[in-house]
Amino acid sequence: MSMIERFGHGGDVWTAADTFGVSSEAFLDFSANINPLGPPPVVAERLQQALEGIVHYPDPGHRKMKAALSARLQVPQERIGIGNGAAECMALLLLAFQPRVVGVIAPCFSEYETLSRQFGADVVTVVGQEEAGFQATEEQLYQLMLETDLVFIGHPNNPTGIVYDRERLERAARMAEKTNTLLAVDEAFIDFLPQEEKVSLLPVQHQYKQLIIIRSLTKFYAIPGLRLGYAVAHPELIAAMSAKQVTWSVNGLALAAGEALLTDKHYDDYVRATRELIVTERTWLRERLASLGIKTWPSEANFLLCRAPALWTAKRLQEELGRRGILIRNCDMYTGLKAGDFRIAIKNRTLNEHLAVSVQAVLH
Fold first, then answer.
1. Last residue of a domain, one of 222, 243, 262
2. Same domain membership, residue 198 and residue 101
3. Rounded Cα–Cα distance for residues 324 and 220 (Å)
4. Which residue ranges does the record assign to the Aminotransferase class I/classII large domain (predicted)?
5. From start to end of 84-181, where are the E strands?
6. Structure confidence by residue, pLDDT tens digits, 49-99
7. Same domain, 116 and 49
8. Are residues 235 and 299 in the same domain?
9. What is the pTM of this model?
């Protein structure tokens, strides 16, 4: 594992600062997949008002937040659980149901395996087919469900950005019912997709008792420092997860920010602007990187999985860019990927151009 990813994730500008001698504030961070538009303005306004409330405990029932989410998603409140980031929702799932064996499809978000092992589960890994964007075949999925108590699927997957066909995921959900396996579909990045409603399992989640949808509010709304996520599932599953949650694990400022952005009158405009920016800039960046000899996979999210040209490793490219104050995500720690594989977030044109020019200078 690269020293920059010593904690298993991107966005560690502090380790990068120690390594490259650049201040953490000065780094141009392409290693964390955060909305380049920044938080909606209503978030800062609401946080300013909410500061007076830090003398009080946050609502342990997350009632206003649940009501706002329920209205936004058109999902009953008893099917919603709020967490201190999507990662806590995953942890609560593991705590509540204590699976002995967890299945993952590599390459994938490292917390699936890390959390599973932390909570005492064994992990079975299947590697998706590279030519299919590292997606698992239906045969692999079915076998995985036969061998495990819980399966995680990223949708879009991190670090590939690949999206499964919804009918295929519904078949997986039906498999889960037959094998009595819990199916956790991680939709942390699905808000970035213009076709979200056509690919998300949210509209059909009520049909599958073994299905848990996990989502994040921190990536799309650019508030990772606040930590806010949620799970949608059958009320019995949500109740079991909530029973394992530490009281007040979701702080009052995070709840206030969540309520504000979900009820913001400019919500639709922010969503539309974000999606348009990501589609435009992702297309531009893929073409620019291809001209530099860098392969990219057809991501539908706000990041790209890339492969450096021959003779280059991601670690070396990360070091060269790091000295220039640019941080990329070395992906050599991911099962199924190669030493030259790295991930970059999509930002605005000015910053994307800066990255491309810097990569060109390093490679040539």
1. 262
2. yes
3. 27
4. 28-356
5. 101-106, 122-127, 150-154
6. 999 999 999 999 999 999 999 999 999 999 999 999 999 999 999 999 999
7. yes
8. no
9. 0.93
